[in-house]
């Protein structure tokens, strides 16, 4: 039994070593990946729930690794956050989103709002406001076209500091969206103090909305709260026509999800803007 126990222990440590080695490997590859030009932004469109026109695009990062291929965010963002590399990636994302928006404007395409995700680590950086302002200046982009998506849990982490930071960002003229709403603990009194423009209802309340009366009730409550605070509401993760109808009925202003489009490359955005998407 002792030998078996030892064998089992050996097995676990081997497994753990392998996992740790794999992590170190990704971490090593992640450092400098932005400087090596290995990241790409893909874009997912957002539509007006009633008129059906395009209202904006959410920029979502992808890692084009030379050997491992295209890597989706869940496979590297958490590690990038733990190690702090997210700050380098996030700065690149901001600059690239602004550059792309400028290029589309120069190509004569319609003005579009572009949303960029900010990590909680970026919020803690002293120079965040400067980084955002520099990205806008470098592309000569009107600040109102840039929206920053900040998760509910990131702002509720330290709400007093968040109020001041969000106000400083807001003073640049950018828009602010609260992301993944409903998944964290929100203090409703704080929600009123944050200078927000947009509330994004998390996918988890949408996926089952046609069957789950509780989800529908939560969405209705979130919409009413947001509208009373003067915020516009977007539902994410919309995958079916039934969900579209239900979310429209419940008062969501905008919709985003695979039902309309998966995230796509900048080239596909351009083509779709010239063909299928109304603005
Ligand atoms: P998120 O900000 O909530 O972004 C939405 C995610 O849901 C995207 O996954 C998108 O592809 C996916 N999605 C959109 N519509 C649907 C749908 O109808 N059904 C389903 N099942 N999924 C849908 P993605 O691109 O893999 O990104 C995952 C997460 O990684 C993002 O969640 C965000 O938290 C993070 N992320 C992505 N890009 C960035 C970035 O540039 N910076 C930071 N800090 N985080 C990022
Ligand atoms: Ca987001
Ligand atoms: Ca989200
Ligand atoms: Ca549910």
TrEMBL record:
Covered range of the whole protein: 580 to 858 of 859
Coiled-coil spans in chain: none
Entry protein name: EAL domain-containing protein
Highest taxon of source: Bacteria
EAL domain residues: 23-277
Lineage per the UniProt record: Bacteria, Pseudomonadati, Pseudomonadota, Betaproteobacteria, Rhodocyclales
């Amino acid at each position: 039994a002792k030998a078996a126990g030892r064998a089992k222990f050996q097995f676990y440590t081997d497994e753990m070593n392998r996992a740790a080695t794999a992590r170190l490997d990704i971490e090593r590859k992640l450092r400098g990946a932005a400087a090596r030009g290995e990241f790409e932004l893909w874009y997912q469109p957002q539509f007006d729930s009633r008129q059906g026109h395009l209202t904006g695009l959410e920029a979502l990062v992808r890692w084009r690794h030379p050997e491992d291929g295209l890597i989706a965010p869940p496979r590297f963002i958490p590690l990038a956050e733990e190690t702090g590399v997210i700050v380098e990636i996030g700065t690149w994302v901001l600059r690239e989103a602004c550059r792309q928006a400028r290029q589309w404007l120069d190509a004569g395409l319609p003005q579009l709002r572009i949303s960029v995700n900010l990590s909680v680590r970026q919020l803690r950086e002293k120079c965040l406001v400067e980084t955002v302002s520099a990205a806008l200046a470098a592309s000569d982009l009107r600040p109102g076209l840039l929206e920053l998506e900040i998760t509910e849990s990131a702002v509720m982490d330290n709400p007093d500091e968040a109020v001041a930071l969000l106000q400083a960002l807001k003073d640049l003229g950018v828009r602010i969206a609260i992301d993944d709403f409903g998944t964290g603990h929100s203090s409703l009194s704080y929600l009123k103090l944050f200078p927000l423009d947009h509330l994004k209802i998390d996918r988890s309340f949408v996926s089952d909305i046609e069957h789950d009366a509780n989800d529908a009730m939560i969405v209705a409550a979130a919409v009413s709260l947001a509208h009373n605070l003067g915020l516009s509401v977007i539902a994410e993760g919309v995958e079916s026509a039934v969900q579209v109808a239900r979310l429209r009925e419940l008062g969501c202003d905008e919709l985003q999800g695979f039902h309309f489009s998966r995230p796509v490359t900048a080239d596909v955005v351009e083509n779709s803007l010239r063909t299928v998407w109304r603005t």
